[in-house]
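Predict the 3D structure for this chain.
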Amino acid sequence: MKIIKDPIYGYIDIEDEYIPVIDSIYFQRLRNIIQTSYTPIYPSSLHNRFTHSLGVYHLGRLAFDSLINNSFDALKSVSSTQISKLRYVFIFACLCHDLGHSPFSHTGEKFYDKKLISDSLNKLVKNEDYTTDLKSDGGIVGKEHEIMSALLALKVFKKLIMPKYYEFFARCIIGLQYKNVKKSDATYKLKSACIELLNSDIIDVDKLDYLVRDSYMSGYLSVAIDYNRLLEGISLNLSDRYPICYQKRSLSVLESVLTAHDMERRWIQAHPVVLYEAYLLQTIIREINGKYIMKNGKDSLFSLKALMIDGVDTNEFGSVKLLSDADILYLAKQSFNESLAVQEYFSRQLRRHPIWKSEAEYMTLFDFNKNKKFIDILQHWEDILISGEYGVYSLNDDFLKMLKIKAEELADKKAVSPSPQNATLLNRINKINDELKLLIEIKDYFDKNDIHFDLVIISLKKFKSNIYKEAFKNLPISFGDYNTEPISMKEVTHIPLDTMENKDFFYLYYKRKNKTIDIQDFSRMLQRAAVI
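Done. Predicted structure below.
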């Protein structure tokens, strides 16, 4: 037994069988992967995926043991040996659930080839039911880092897990539930509950740890979450498709978790400064991957090989092994003189600033809900900037020049087209002319007001609370002896939150320098220009 001091839970007991995993180079890599992207607004949030994973391990132990203790009658048909084996694999999954995380939290994971790593995991698991359930859910289940974590763990720790439990281990991490299981099968009900405890749409030990830990480490004052009270009140739910039931005493904590998650999503994860730093990092990663990684192979900086000791070869700097945040920053600095994105990332003086600073402020300025064409153009520009198609990462004179070239190419194509009434070509011409009209009006505004024309777009969905998710509404709550059947959450609680439709909105960032935009004046111009 090893004991680790943790600022959240006091002391975490590490059982002997998991110590080799924690001491391995693959788990130690997580010390060099930052947990959140919140440092632009909360500089003290420097905790890493290593400490978070230990926290999830700790909560996983508490959750599993409570589940077993509170479900004695339901598990009479399951042997203690089987329960012990499932406990081992589940807690192993809790420990390794972030093993394959990309650098800089979730910022880098979009560069993983999701289909490739999902197919690789499927081949490694080699289980017919797993494959069938995967296909019934569209072929790919889980976020990129979850799939990579299961894949990497099974690659490097396969001797520590019996092959027949590979599929259960992978399901726990990616959140793939069993589809064709009889309600009377207590073993599979227990397995389903374990999957729900680690990867749920609403509440699980992963979310519990990061909600508590992120708040504590950043200094962001969130809702207090009594995780002990919550986890002590869970049991198997045999009468419903939802595998876990919460006791009535957990109601207040369930609402606290919901509120805390909503607050973190709305006011931190969607903060314009946090979003912009992620945008810069993604731009830098795209540049690095294209410049330094070997062109004559299939290797990518964001691949399974890069996370292992073999590593991937670069064109100039040897191989990159056990990929971490530091590797990205090192390679970025090699392009400091050539890359504007790198310069901007390392120098706060060069950073762009959001013209409006919250969704609420956006809503008071604009009403673009009926102007889909305008929103579509902005999102199209954003896609071009993210992909690097025009060789720039902001709307500027070079971007406008590329638009004009594209418009001229289409006009020339129309002039020589054997079918002048070609509807597809005409639509493309009309679309790019609308884009030119809009961008020229925006540029004219900046020129007239002597403000540097250099904008970045980041779009996202308007906030929608988790209370509207079916998974939250249907959480089963047990009221003990006087209710034989659990009651769904929607029948026993009501949290009055906004009912806003899930529409798109966006941020625009500009280089403020010595002159600040008049937000109201700019918004009037943009609303006029948006009438296309």
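The first strand starts at residue 2 and ends at 6.
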